[in-house]
Design a protein that fits this description.
Shape: globular
Mean pLDDT: 82
Number of helices: 17
Order of helices and strands: EHHEEEHHHHHHHHHEEHEHHHEEHEEEH
Low-confidence stretches: 279-286, 322-337, 429-436, 458-462
Distance between the termini: 56 Å
Strand content: 5-15%
Strand order of the largest sheet: 8-9-7-10-11-12
Length: about 450
């Protein structure tokens, strides 16, 4: 049976352009809104981006009692993809798309969109995609209820202040287009104690990351407040905060820079420089062994060998394609270790067969590897890999499932005879309990979480 597709974008629109090729690739890699089937999603997105057609506008295809009723190939938030892939980027165009859908569905999408893309730690969208996301957020005010939109604005404002105080950057914050929504949110006297507390920290110079005072978004926010450019309700709230601070400690903006009576510009600049140096030091050059990514849910193990040569042998055994580059780089500085590793690899091959060809292999240090495979949340997940590591003479320092949502589930009871179970990851020390709802979106953040878990008194391998 031939499927008849619906033409969404005008047929005469130029859709085969380099910009749309880049947009398609970025949407496919970074946007994972709603529920969808991976097998059908990519072809459907490609058809939408380059032909302007979809199978159906509906989130689910088929009647309520249809035995073959299924999710739209573009997922349950098909409306989000119709907007983000649109050749016309405007609030009017996006509203025209969104108004075909139930308000509840669009509201759910709004929650997912803003929680995932407000700020820099979730996804690193290009300027072009970020502009589309911003436009979509602004269009939402005309589609979802005023109460829902205002609540989203309040959440984003709280996130903005939190990032200013604790991360030192507000890049990609979505609230900067929605100050009117923030003003309306604080008007009825909603619970704004978190906002009040964060604003006090910021305005008094007590931000944990002083580098935030050099952030362009923070400077613009403070300047806008001091120039009385917000709505009356937000101004009243911020005035209460500002006036309660000792005048000798209040923030000011002079010549486009934030200053404090009790802090010098040199102190702020020094803190900003230290933050940049720390970030640069944390950026590790790729190791020749490093390979791959995981699409969707992944099983990750932090594996330690008894020696550097043993760890190199494990890497060679699991990913033979990495052997040539690793050996070449080692010829001048560690030829003996490489020879020993190659000998060990022959003895490890049988033990490591259940783990062969991981989707992710990242070297952490001379004796430690981070390994990852595409997986599902099934009872017993990780047991085969744990057994293989043990048989090969390795220790599993930590093992976890990294869900598509960003949630991390630590796995326990992986040894034979133990009761398998999982536990949701706790925020790292220094991270607020509600920050990003405990989600992890970057591989390096996952690695930091697993390393912290490995340092705890009880671990997966015990």
């Amino acid at each position: 049976m031939t499927t008849e597709f619906v033409q969404i974008y005008p047929a005469d629109t130029a859709l085969h352009t380099p910009d749309r090729q880049a947009l398609y690739a970025e949407l496919l890699e970074h946007i994972d809104l709603g529920e969808f089937t991976k097998k059908t999603f990519a072809p459907a997105l490609k058809r939408l981006c380059f032909e302007g057609r979809i199978e159906s506008r509906d989130e689910r295809i088929g009647g309520l009692r249809d035995p073959v009723r299924r999710i739209n190939p573009l997922g349950t938030y098909v409306h989000a993809y119709l907007c983000l892939a649109s050749p016309v980027v405007s609030q009017e165009a996006f509203v025209e798309i969104l108004q075909h859908y139930k308000q509840a569905s669009v509201t759910d999408m709004a929650i997912d969109l803003t929680e995932r893309f407000d700020g820099t730690r979730r996804h690193h969208a290009s300027p072009a995609l970020h502009a589309r996301i911003r436009c979509l957020v602004q269009a939402l005010r005309q589609v979802i209820s005023a109460e829902s939109f205002q609540y989203r604005c309040g959440r984003m404002f709280s996130g903005f202040l939190s990032r200013a105080c604790y991360r030192g950057t507000t890049e990609h914050s979505l609230v900067t287009d929605c100050w009117d929504g923030v003003d309306q949110y604080v008007a009825p006297g909603n619970d704004v104690e978190n906002i009040r507390s964060l604003a006090t920290t910021l305005f008094s110079g007590e931000a944990e990351e002083p580098a935030g005072y050099q952030d362009a978004g923070v400077i613009a926010f403070c300047e806008r407040y001091l120039q009385r450019q917000f709505g009356p309700h937000l101004l009243a709230l911020l005035d209460d905060v500002y006036q309660a601070i000792d005048p000798a400690r209040r923030l000011r903006v002079e010549h486009g820079a934030i200053v404090f009576p009790h802090l010098s510009l040199a102190d702020i600049a020094s803190a900003a420089g230290a933050l940049q140096d720390e970030a640069a030091a944390a950026t590790r050059a790729p190791h020749p062994d490093d390979v791959g990514t995981v699409q969707g849910t992944g099983l990750f193990c932090l594996v330690r060998s008894p020696s550097a040569a043993h760890s190199l042998a494990v890497a060679h055994t699991l990913r033979p394609t990495a052997q040539a580059s690793a050996s070449a780089s080692a010829q001048t500085s560690a030829a003996a270790a490489t020879d020993e590793a190659e000998t060990l690899a022959d003895t490890l091959r049988e033990a490591l067969t259940p783990m062969a060809h991981p989707d992710v292999l990242q070297r952490v240090d001379d004796t430690t590897l981070l390994l990852g495979w595409e997986a599902e949340l099934d009872a017993g997940a990780g047991r085969a890999e744990f057994a293989a590591c043990t048989a090969a003479g390795c220790s599993v320092l930590a093992c976890a499932l990294w869900m598509e949502s960003g949630e991390v589930l630590h796995l326990h009871g992986l040894a034979q005879g133990q009761q398998w179970r999982f536990a949701r990851a706790r925020p790292l020390a220094g991270q607020q309990e509600d920050e990003d709802e405990g989600l992890v979106q970057e591989l390096q953040d996952l690695l930091a979480l697993l390393l912290a878990t490995a340092a705890e008194p009880t671990g997966t391998s015990r």
